[in-house]
Structure formats: structure tokens, C-alpha cells
Amino acid sequence: MEDHRTTIEVRDLHKSFGPQTVLDGIGFEVRDGETLAVMGRSGTGKSVLLKLLIGLASPDAGSVTICGRNIVGLNTHELNKLRKKIGFLFQQGALYDSLTIEQNVLFPMQRHTRMDREAQRQRARELLGNVGLEKDYDKLPSQISGGMQKRVGLARALALEPDIVLFDEPTSGLDPITAAEIGKLIVDLKQKRRMSAVVVTHDVRGARSIADRAVLMDHGKVCAEGSFDDLQNNHDPLVSEFLREGC
Amino acid sequence: MGTVRSGLEWLGELGIFCARVLRAAVTPPYEWRELIRQCDFIGSRSVPLVALAGAAVGVVIAMETHDSLVRFGAKAFLPPVIMYSLLKETGPVITGVIVSGRAGAGIGAQLGSMKVTEQIDAMEASAVDPYKYLAATRVLACILMLPFLTLVAIFCGGVTGWVVTALSEPISLRLFIERGFKNMAFSDYIPPILKTTVFGFLIGLIACFQGMRTRGGTEGVGRSTTSSVVLSSLFVLLADVFLVRVILTIWPAS
């Protein structure tokens, strides 16, 4: 019997680009309401992993089970049904640069909710307010800072009230104060809404404050997994070095 | 051998892309607002450029043809020659090439930059089909706007053609139009205008395809913009050869 308390289950995932193997049999689970940090050095396939979790790329082998359903090989229609339950915060925000920040948040709502236009607008402003943006709704992404773009990206990721949120380097490229604010926002959201999350990061301190558990990736494989205390007690030289340098 | 193979691969991928865009275009929900926005970008904002190009071509045709017809003592045929030339060939092709340059570059660059900044991935992650929202709307806008722009080019070319003719030998606009359209039949008007819908389809499809397969940052965006313009212009000219043959087969010249 399938354990439905497991929101995400990744098994024996392989992905290569030409001769380069990016993921080499990776596997882990994310339980309902849990936040898992996926850490590792740059170029270890963390961002590719996130794209596989939402079906933006297909694995060469293995399975990705979201809410009890294997998404590998699903058609676009079926995949889109599942995608509505998942929010994705991209590393660089990936805001639609021809739309204002309010329109960016409205974009998924206009297509997937039955709310009237005024209710959608109010909801978008509420989401922007939750991430600390209470004005400048009509500005374009190019007119706001990188930190503000990440906040708008976060508001957009939450627009459809997802059960799962995937964060790709949520604090990278930000100053320490803004990074801490984004981290706090994620923790607050997690407490408010019982959502599962996967956070890809190499910021160990940030991951410790956001996540319940972590996996450490190296050469496309999981080399350590567990709570941060477990990782702290792990005597593998790579794990020790990563945690030491990361902090 | 490698070039032939990559050319065939490109054509195969274009065919698959075309099928996805067509399917996205005919299945609901429809992106009306984005379609209207693209019609504005591709259509109304191209009007000044197309009008200027049409006007310039009208002047050139009038000047060149005037000398030739005077030499053969057939000056009276100047209005129909100008209008035939503009309506049947020059107007549609000039419009196709101008729109390939303006809209093709615009679409290629915009979609290319959206691709490298992960905006297209973000759209897919939000369960919105980029083939529907980005590609189908642009292709449809090109199809709808090309005939309209062609008429603008023909009108402006006709007006400047009349002005040049009138400068060498006074002729009223009414008489110029009367002589210009005197012996024209259905097959002279409609098919050349309709063939521009095919030009629009090719421009939109190739520019979207090149834009959405962009790889490699800003350099990749530059490459896809250039290839959008070059390939769409080339395909417009090649399609013209084919379409003229088809039109002549269906409506043989009387």
C-alpha cells in the first residue's frame, strides 16, 4: 500500500545531458508538511532535480511520485492538473518582464481560478502584502530590486494555494539581511499553511533555519540524508567539510 | 552530410512545433487578450514602416516602368502596370519581408529572452501552456495582420505611383484608378492578398520556433533573433514561388 503521508517520493532517478551524468540514481522522500533542503556543491544537479519534480524535464530512468501519482510519462493535461498543486520559486525570479508585478501574481489566478476580477486583484495584493510588498503594484520587474523580484516570485508561487512549494536557491544573490527576511517569510508561510517544500540551496545556515531535514548531493547521488543534527554527527569528510564551509 | 542532417532535423522539429501550436490554437481556453495585444504589436505598429516601404516601391515602379513604356509607345498602360505589379507581387512580398524583419526579430528576441531567463519554464510550471499563450497568439496575429498590412502597402504604393505618373504627365487620381483596375479579375485581387496569410503563418511560426528553442544566454538570444529574420524572410520568398504556381494553376491567366 502507498503511504499517502509521503507527498513527494523520488526513486532511482537518472538524468544525463549527452555524456554528462547529472543525476545518478538519486532517491528521497518528503512527507506531508515537511520541508526538505537539498544541498550540494554548484553543478551537482540540484536545479535539474527541481525541474524533474515539476515535469519541466523528463528523467532517463526512475520515478517521481507527487501526491501518490507518478508524473513520469504523464501527458501535459494530466501534468498540468498536478502542477496547479505545486508552486515554484525560480532562482532568478523568472518574472514575466512584460507584465507588472501585480499582473505577474494575477497570471496563474486568471487562468486557474473562478474568482471574479476584483477578488483576484484583492487576493494578489494580499499575497504581495504577505511578502512585504504593499505598493508599487504597477511597476515592471525591471524597475524593482533582485530581493523584491524574489518576493514577487514567492507571491506568484503561492497564488494557487499550492500543497507543495519548490524553492530554487531562494536566498542566492541577496544581501544577508534580505536573505534572512526571505528565509523568515518561508518559515512563516510554512507555519501558516501546512505545505510541503523542497528547498535547493548551498546556504547551510539558511537551510538549517528553513528545513526540517536535508539531503546532501554529490556527483548526482545522495551522499547523506537526515536531520541537521544527524548530518552534524556524520563523519564523512565531504559532509563535514560542506557543513563547516557552508556555515 | 552533417548540414543536410541538421537541416532535416530542424525541419522535423519545426513540424512537431507546428503541430503543437495548431493544436493549442484550436483548443479552448483562448487567449483573446494576448491575441489582441499581438495584433497591435504586429499589425498597427508595423503600419508606418509598411506604408513607407509601399510608397517607396510605388515610386520606383512608376519611374522604371514609365521609361520602358514610353520607349515602346505604351504610356497609357502605366496605371495598370503599376497596380498589377503592386497588387499581384510587389505589395505582398515587400510586406512579407518588412514584417519578417520587424515582427520576426521582435518575436525571436522576446521569446528567446523569455526562454533564457526561465520565464517560459515559469509559465509551464504555472500549468499555462506556452504554446497557446506565446506561440499560437503570435502566429494567429501574423496570419490576421499580413493581409491588412499588404493592403496598406498597395494603397501607399498606388498613391505614390499616381503622384510620379502625374508629375510626368497630368492624370487625375480617378482616371489613374479607373485605368489601373479596368481589366482586373477576381484572380488578380483575392489570391495575392490571401497568400499573405501563408506568409504571416510562416513568419510567426519560424520566429516563435527559433525564439522558444534559444540556448545559451544573451549570445543565444542574438542568434535566434538573427535566424528568425533570415529564415522567415527566406521562407516567405520560397513560399511565394510555390504559391504563385498554385494560384496560376487554380486561376489561369486569361
Keywords:
heterodimer, A: 247 residues, alpha/beta, 6-stranded mixed β-sheet, 4-stranded antiparallel β-sheet, 9 helices, 10 strands, globular, B: 254 residues, mainly alpha
Tell me about this structure.
The complex is a heterodimer of chains A (247) and B (254). Chain A is of the alpha/beta class. Chain A is 38% helix and 26% strand. Chain A has helices at 46-53, 76-83, 101-112, 117-130, 146-157, 176-192, 204-210, 228-232, 237-246, and strands spanning 6-17, 20-31, 35-40, 61-66, 69-70, 86-89, 164-168, 196-201, 213-218, 221-226. Chain A is globular. The N and C termini of chain A lie far apart (40 Å). With 254 residues, chain B is mainly alpha-helical. In chain B, helix 4 packs across helix 7. At the A-B interface, helix 2 and helix 3 of A face helix 4 and helix 5 of B.
Rg of Cα set of chain A: 18 Å
Order of helices and strands of chain B: HHHHHHHHH
Topology as H/E string of chain A?
A: EEEHEEHEHHHEHEHEEHH
Note the main sheet of chain B: none
Largest interface: A-B, 25 and 16 residues
Q: Number of helix segments of chain B?
A: 9
Helix content of chain B: over 70%
What's the quick description here?
Chain A has 247 residues and is α/β, with parallel strands linked by helices. Chain A is built from nine helices and ten strands.
Protein topology:
The complex is a heterodimer of chains A (247) and B (254).
Chain A: E1 6-17, E2 20-31, E3 35-40, H1 46-53, E4 61-66, E5 69-70, H2 76-83, E6 86-89, H3 101-112, H4 117-130, H5 146-157, E7 164-168, H6 176-192, E8 196-201, H7 204-210, E9 213-218, E10 221-226, H8 228-232, H9 237-246
Parallel strand pairs in A: 3-8, 3-9, 6-7, 7-8
Antiparallel strand pairs in A: 1-2, 1-4, 4-5, 9-10
Chain B: H1 2-26, H2 32-42, H3 47-71, H4 78-116, H5 119-125, H6 130-168, H7 173-181, H8 186-212, H9 217-250
